[in-house]
Specification:
binds magnesium ion, alpha+beta, binds adenosine-5'-diphosphate, 642 residues, 9-stranded mixed β-sheet
Length: 642
């Protein structure tokens, strides 16, 4: 090659897909062959998005229309060439946009997602739903995909082509007017898609709700040839009416679901939806969906594709996060306002009182949809309906929990929706509601007890639970990261205080009988000197040493003072790189335990034994030892002395 002008892009370039795109393509082609026809849904969905984007950009720049504001999508096919073409006159793409949109996946967390794939095809195929399929689904049926596109306002077009194997080419091209053509050259054996009837029936099934008209050429019967022939004139094959503006009764479940896949960029059906028109000071229509599965980047707070905002049926923006509180960020759908100005910006949304009113209305809607699902879990008619709340909770429960602290106004409603693991159920599944717990409380029990820990097992086997097990008192087992946040914001439920079993002096109140109280008092007297000696040995490491009420089997445990931060929360904060105050624990010892009884008579190894009591209490609650090697050494010495 000789010199190419540096400022101009080369005529034809061959570029590699990002590694993750290659993996996605491979995964998709192998997992979706039984549901091939969805490629059309995805490409129509993109064409429709492109028209929406143009319409929105043109609000501030009429010139982008270039005299053609009649937005439409055309689907044609060519039997001889074995191609299907989807054309739109939407926003189009520049060369740079083509390279980044069709050669990379811009979602953050993509790399982590792909690194988690197991290599087991069936399992991995299942994950594709979390990722979405999009444009690349064209390769399920196409040997080659060609895109010819011209960005609105630009003179030059770009041609992109790939056979989905690892690379693509890109070169300058010609196109009359703005927009995009996606041309699929079908794989061997896919010829039955080359039929007007087949394509139309797929379009009706999946794309009827698309608001832009989708056109196909009319056909008529040719007596001489004895087959259908294309007549040349286009006709609209979808309803082309915004689904949410139609009456609920006229919309089938399937139509609601297909619309969800388009707005939600999802591949699976939603779990539930709610559709309503709100009238009054603010007029708007909401069509909101609860997905059936958390997307792989649920925890990415910057993630896109939530709520689409429309104003009087004009698309305004994706991911209008101001319309939904953060703890409901899993909700997808459309809000169409009658009152907001068309030139509304994100900044305006942030300040607007109208937006605040819409957000509050939508929040209440979503909460009542969740309440319905929760209600159906107990009174539902069929198993599918009954299982929905559990599915919701498994996927999004940890996100909803954030609401207890974030949304003071709806705290009570959210509290009722919470589900926890508990000593009653003894499985990792979070199924126990606070109301269930309260209904099961013992006579005289005026508190809701919980334990927080790093993992379910650490919570379940926590020594702090021993007395509760003995007395048959249920304890909630909290091991989600967000749980510390929940309990610091939710201090009571239906008049009963939420109390940590690892904090404070544990006053079991009426749950303790007189004999137990007496025994406790006498132990306190009897062990007074020993407690002092232990305290002197541990020195600065503890705030206090005292006789326990909590233990029946273990020799010792650590608790936090009532006012102090829990040890678990302090560890969480430190792990997150935040400054947590150094909280000194209280060491509680169990006078009935043989180790503790022996300690009374121990002289030579007293300090080592005390150190062991402290360290094992710390280990049992998931803490990290200051001197692990020293612990092991002392332990071995003790074992040898047995
Ligand atoms: P998604 O639609 O979820 O963003 P896709 O894989 O379907 O993901 O599409 C990738 C991107 O390619 C789109 O976000 C869009 O920027 C671009 N794109 C795809 N099809 C078109 C089209 N017909 N016109 C303009 N841009 C398009
Ligand atoms: Mg798409």
């Amino acid at each position: 090659m000789t010199t190419a002008a540096p400022e101009k892009a080369p005529a034809r370039e061959n570029l590699q897909f990002q590694a993750e795109v290659k993996q996605l393509l491979h995964l998709m082609i192998h997992s979706l062959y039984s549901n091939k026809e969805i490629f059309l849904r995805e490409l129509i969905s993109n064409a429709s998005d492109a028209c929406d984007k143009l319409r929105f950009e043109a609000l501030n720049n009429e010139a982008l229309y270039g005299g053609d504001s009649d937005l439409k999508i055309q689907v044609t096919y060519d039997k001889a060439a074995r191609t299907i073409t989807i054309s739109d006159n939407g926003i189009g793409m520049s060369r740079g946009e083509v390279i980044s949109n069709l050669g990379t996946i811009a979602k953050s967390g993509t790399r982590e997602f792909f690194s988690k794939l197991s290599g087991d095809q069936a399992k991995d195929a299942n994950l594709i739903g979390q990722f979405g399929v999009g444009f690349y689904s064209g390769f399920i049926v196409a040997q080659t995909l060609t895109v010819v596109t011209r960005r609105a306002g630009e003179a030059e077009a770009v041609r992109w082509e790939s056979s989905g194997e690892g690379d693509f080419t890109i070169e300058a091209a010609e196109r009359t007017g703005r927009g995009t053509d996606v041309i699929l050259t079908l794989r061997e054996g896919e010829d039955d898609f080359l039929s007007s009837w087949r394509l139309k029936s797929i379009l009706t099934k999946y794309s009827d709700h698309i608001t832009i008209p989708v056109l196909m050429k009319k056909e008529e019967w040719d007596k001489d040839k004895n087959e259908m022939v294309v007549q040349g004139e286009f006709e609209t094959v979808n309803q082309a009416k915004a689904l949410w503006t139609r009456a609920k009764n006229d919309i089938t479940e399937e139509q609601y679901h297909e619309f969800y896949k388009h707005v939600g960029h999802d591949y699976e059906d939603p779990l539930a939806y709610t559709h309503s028109r709100v009238e009054g000071r603010q007029e708007y229509t909401q069509l909101l969906y609860i997905p059936a599965r958390a997307p792989f980047d649920m925890w990415d707070r910057e993630r896109k594709h939530g709520i689409k905002l429309y104003v009087r049926r004009v698309f305004i923006m994706d991911d209008a996060e101001q319309l939904m509180p953060k703890y409901l960020r899993f909700v997808k759908g459309v809000i169409d306002s009658n009152d907001l100005p068309l030139n509304v910006s994100r900044e305006i949304l942030q300040e607007s009182r109208d937006v605040k009113a819409i957000r509050e209305g939508c929040t209440k809607r979503v909460l009542s949809t969740l309440e319905d699902l929760a209600e159906q879990a107990t009174s539902g008619e069929d198993d599918k309906q009954k299982a929905k709340y559990a599915t919701f909770w498994k996927e999004f429960g940890a996100v909803l929990k954030e609401g207890v602290g974030e949304d003071a106004g709806n705290k009570e409603r959210i509290a009722k929706l919470l589900r926890f693991a508990s000593t009653q159920a003894d499985t990792t599944d979070q199924t126990v509601s606070l109301a269930d717990y309260v209904a099961r409380t013992k006579e005289g029990q005026d508190k809701i007890y919980y334990v927080t820990a790093e993992t379910f097992l650490a919570a379940k086997n926590s020594p702090h639970l021993e007395v509760f097990r003995k007395k048959g008192i249920e304890v909630l087992l909290l091991s989600d990261r967000v749980d510390e946040w929940v309990v610091s914001n939710l201090t009571e439920f239906e008049g009963k205080a939420l109390v940590s079993v690892a904090k404070g002096g544990l006053d079991l109140g009426k749950l303790e009988d007189e004999a137990e109280k007496k025994e406790q008092e006498s132990a306190e007297g009897e062990y007074k000197d020993l407690l002092k000696k232990i305290q002197d040995t541990l020195g600065d490491k503890v705030k206090e040493v005292r006789v326990t009420h909590r233990l029946t089997e273990s020799p010792s445990c650590l608790v936090s003072d009532e006012q102090d931060m829990s040890a678990h929360l302090s560890r969480l904060l430190k792990a997150a790189g935040q400054n947590a105050p150094g909280v000194k624990p209280i060491l509680e010892i169990n006078p009935k335990h043989p180790l503790v009884q022996k300690l009374k008579y121990e002289e030579a190894h007293f300090a080592d034994w005390v150190s062991l009591l402290f360290d094992q209490a710390l280990l049992a609650e998931g803490g990290a030892l200051e001197d692990p090697a020293g612990f092991v050494k002392r332990m071995n010495q003790m074992l040898l002395a047995l």
